[in-house]
Amino acid sequence: MEYLPVQDESRIECVMCIVNPRGKPRRFFLLYQSECPGNGRKEHRDIAKLESGSGCSEVNAESGANMFRTFTDVVAHTLCFVVFFVTFIPSLLFSMLWKMIVRVLLYLEYGSNAELMAACDAVSAHKPAPSKEGLINALFHIRGSIPLKEIRRRVSENLVCAQTVDGRSLYPRLMRCVQSKYGLYVWNQAETFDLHWHVDYFRDEAGTKVTYKNREDQLDVIQKIINAPMFDSKTSPWRVLLVNKEDGSDCILVLRCHHSMLDGGAAFMVVLPAVADQIKGSDGFGNIKPSSKVVRMRNKVLGMLCVPHIISRQLCLRDNNPLRSAANVEEPPSGKWCYWSDPIPLAKVTEVRKKTNVRFSAVLITCIGRAVTRYLKLPEVAKTFKGNAMISAYQAVSMWTPEDVPSLENKITGIATGITPNPSKNALEQLLEANENQEHWLRQEFLWGSYTFSNLTTNTVPHVIPEKFIIPWLLGGVTMFVSSAMGPSNFFTVNGNEVYSLTGIMPLPPTTCLGFIMLSYGDKLAVSVTGRKYAFPELEDLKKLDTMLHEEFDNVHNAIVAQD
């Protein structure tokens, strides 16, 4: 989900700088850069000398050692290369042949009303089959109240009934459901489709529309929504739900959509412009950067060569902490919590980035790592675990291109990286270390390698294989999912009412207990924390973590910027 296009490109800072092996920054689809240094590593060393009086050689040495920490890591990498090229590629070619045969069978049986599911992050992290674990929940906070019939009209005109110039449906998947055919997942025409059901009030079991009185009541309603049952498998997996405040002064529009249809970024980019009033300038896709076919082909080839390295990286993760240990009990509690508080001023992040010339994501990862580490040291948490806790994050990165817009298709990938801050280092040193780690892994070759692997295994081999073996193997050792997105700089309105905040709720896979979504909107950075109940028995536990995260943004800002 990293990063959404923004309305005013002039305000984009160094959100993410993808650096090639020679150290030259590049623009990479939705990953922007404006004031990035010509050689990130050299600039980081100079800053370290200036700010802390010492060089950055220790950080660089440790960053370079992250790839091969032990002899076992070297052996694991080597075996992955051998296994991949000797066994995986031949079986993959056979699977691709089977995929071509299935396409023909589908066309003979359903004509143009059915299509194979394209590669998307959903299958790599969630089952596309009906499961509430894979549901995205995007929240639009709106001042005042909006008539439900107006929301239905806009969704119908701008999404469901929208057509291309030649009369074809612009979003055909909105009226399709996911089915399993011949071992692969297929988008097929939904047996039932009722717009009044897809766009409705959130209702309780008795069918009565639900409202909220205050902030605590609002949180309680959202917990019920994100844990509500999945939709009927015979209809399209999306809904837009309206929840009003009792006094009419506020309301929330909730998009519930399965990850196989939309990723989080697409959810905001497609749905917000569809329900909002007239938008000035960009429609939400205007800042997607083009890339020539030659460059894309080169990156795909390099990505293919990096696939074994990506796989072995997952095997070498050192991920061990008390949040995961609770999942090993016989009957862990099901469901999840979500929590968000006041947004963080975006200036705090951009000021730290400008002062240190690090990536936007490095600031976020540093603050998250410091907050989670503090949380793990709480007596009530630490008592369940002995030893040094190690944590890692699976970071989502957009792979959208102009050719993908506006189709409802996931084009994102992710890289798993260790983020545990070194307690012997100060905030600046931790920040530089995180930036070096980001620079090492968030390179074009590795991003394309991860995406290539997802692209090759998603709906190419029979879905039983990735769901039973590949997904638990790759994601089973990751503590958290982190997704950061740059939203529009101007505020939207719906029916004249201001959309004053956007919140995303992380669709955690069963193997992962914690997730963070950070979304900028206007001059604020909204932060939401999602946690599984087996790791966070009470909502108060997530509130503690959220408080610590806000404190760490202040601490890092004070240590690096405010000291002047």
Can you walk me through this structure?
This protein is α+β, with helices and mostly antiparallel strands. The protein has a single domain (1-325, 340-564), classed as 2-Layer Sandwich (Chloramphenicol Acetyltransferase). 41% of the residues lie in helices and 19% in strands. It is built from 17 helices and 19 strands. It has helices at 40-52, 57-65, 71-110, 121-125, 148-160, 195-198, 215-226, 264-275, 293-315, 322-325, 346-356, 360-376, 379-382, 427-441, 444-457, 464-475, 539-562; strands at residues 18-19, 25-26, 115-116, 135-143, 176-181, 184-189, 199-201, 211-212, 238-245, 250-258, 336-340, 344-345, 392-398, 412-418, 480-486, 493-494, 497-505, 514-521, 524-532. Strands 4, 7, 8, 9, 10, 16 and 17 form a 7-stranded mixed sheet that branches. Strands 11, 12, 13, 14, 15, 18 and 19 form a 7-stranded mixed sheet that branches. A hairpin with a 2-residue loop joins strand 18 and strand 19. Helix 1 (40-52) packs antiparallel against helix 14. It is globular, with a radius of gyration of 23 Å. Mean pLDDT is 75; it is low at 1-68 and 280-287.
